[in-house]
Amino acid sequence: MQNELNNKVVLEVFDKIRNHGEPYEDGHMLEGIIASSDFDGYSVLLSGSGVTLQLNFHQSYKFDYESEKLKAQFMDKIDYIHRNYNNRSVSSE
User: Fold this and answer.
1) b or e along 54-81 (b: 16 or more beta carbons within 10 Å of the residue's beta carbon)?
2) What is the mean pLDDT of residues 35-41?
3) At residue 88, does pLDDT exceed 80?
4) What contacts 89, CB < 8 A, 6 or more positions away?
5) What is the pLDDT of residues 42-73, one digit of tens each?
6) Is residue 4 within 8 Å of residue 74, measured between CB atoms?
7) Which of 2, 8, 11, 79 has the smallest set of CB atoms within 10 Å of its CB?
8) Secondary structure of the chain in the HEC alphabet?
9) CB-based burial label for 51 (10 Å; 0-12, 13-18, 19+)
């Protein structure tokens, strides 16, 4: 199976959501995508648009979605955040 996910992009988007997003429950939300992690940081989670993506420490990942359409919309939002937000923190000095 070909790797359909660029783990580096997912981690960059996770960081951008945490830096630019609003606090939301156990994480941050930006453009409808919620970024959170487990208590030890071993796994990061991105969720929204009816999709959850879990990326683990050893670069393995798991998608949970009900339709390919929802997954495509989710990946479009991930791509949008990746292209339109920089890596610098809003509160950096």
Assistant:
1) bbeeeeebeeebeeeeebebbbebbeeb
2) 87
3) no
4) 19
5) 899 999 989 999 999 888 999 999 999 999 99
6) no
7) 2
8) CCCCCCHHHHHHHHHHHHHHCEEECCEEEECCEEEEECCCCCEEEEEECCEEEEEECCCCEEEEECCHHHHHHHHHHHHHHHHHCCCCCCCCC
9) buried
Identity of the amino acid at 69: K
| Calpha distance 49→47 (Å, rounded) | 7
Q: Is the pLDDT of residue 2 over 60?
A: no
53 touches 10 (CB < 8 A): yes
Q: Can you tell me which residue has the tokens 């660029």?
A: 6
